[in-house]
Amino acid sequence: TFRLTVGPGPPRVVTLRDITVKGMQLEPVLVDYLCQRNAVTGPLDLTGQSSLRLPGMLPTMSGSGRLSVGPGRVVGPDLPSALGQALALTDLVSATLDPKAARPGPGSPLNFDSITASYTIADGVAHTDDLVYVARDIRVTGSGSYALTDGRTAMDVTVTQGSNRVKARLTGAAGALSIVPTDVRVKEPKDLRKALDRLLR
Hints:
The protein is α+β, with helices and mostly antiparallel strands.
């Protein structure tokens, strides 16, 4: 539900207030209808407000809100590929994982229990400082930006599993996403291996 107002312009400004979404399944929208290269599935809860100018739409969007998704999956080739790249750049592959088995294939889903974040949007770019991704015993926190028009991402992430912690910089756009580890602390490599194996099934 939402309240819609349209300013006469020019430019014509569309304002959505009191947006409330409860339990909307994302897969039919993002994967089946919009055919997004990368997407998440699962039920979405969202509250917020936004505005945009016509006919610009996404590049002119502004707003704020909070969202929660899950349980669900991350689908698409880019994030699993970037994860494999990150593992190859650290000692995790040689120390804890079989290099061939560790790297997820292009179509491997990443299963998660929940994704939560508050966000602001300015000129079509979404920003968050409190993204939390929970998948079994792995927790990922992130802060950064995501461009609604082309998916360009710039985000600092921290992956925590037990006493193991990996910090990384996630950057790029659809088809060219990369993760560069900036700090790796592995105290229980066997536990990390088991957690990643379960996550990527």
